Amino acid sequence: MNPWPYPLWIAHRGAGKLAPENTLAAFRVGASHGYRAFECDVKLSADGVPFLLHDATLQRTTPAHGVAGERDWNELARLDAGSWHSPAHAGEPIPSLETIAHYCLHNGFALNIEIKPTPGSEQETGYAVAREAARLWASEALKPLLSSFRPDALAAAKAADASLPRALLLDSLREGWLDDARALACVAIVANHAALDAAVIAQVHAAGMRALSYTVNDDATARRLAAAGIDGLITDVVDHFAPDTLIHS
Ligand code: G3P
Ligand code: MG
Fold first, then answer.
1. Can you give the CATH number for the domain in which 18 is found?
2. What is the rounded distance in angstroms from the CA atom of residue 10 to the CA atom of residue 213?
């Protein structure tokens, strides 16, 4: 296996339980707890700007409704993505990937970009996000890790820039999961913690890939996965797990 450059602990959605998920405020909270690696969800605006949002629609995390990817970036950028979480975060904007890239680069933080396409735009999103990531991290040695549940999005990311590291996200070990990861030349799989044990992690390692897990929010699961040889843990509870909680060699 190649050396693994990313920290073991990764803040999920930018530490998006203590602050509104997928906003700069969430990243700042993660950083204040010592986190140096972050996961976030990225999709495309109607005019092709990669931005951070988990859901396909706007209503859970903003006052607007409908499909986020049908709106232009100048409209999305004006939305309040913080009030749904708490009054203290009122007016917190949806960030572009560019804004988050600059924040991470200024602070030396690693980023896991989950490509989260609006349904129907998997290839377009994978391609555009990889192109943007390649541009933003052009002069950096540590590139962002591009992950997705969608092999078609990862294939498009590979076509856009094969040099960016890719990871296949898995909710379960579905038929063909390891072959898919190999075919996409992934450096890692990122699986639901319930799907992982020592045997599966050993299988991933034997294939020359790393094994990461989401969303690990309790001590027993973290300990179990650490003992099984996990390479990365994505967590919501940045106020519970110090990022040096488990030293993995
Ligand atoms: O990237 C890991 C994790 O974020 C996948 O689940 O729904 O939180 O994006 P979700
Ligand atoms: Mg995600």
1. 3.20.20.190
2. 10
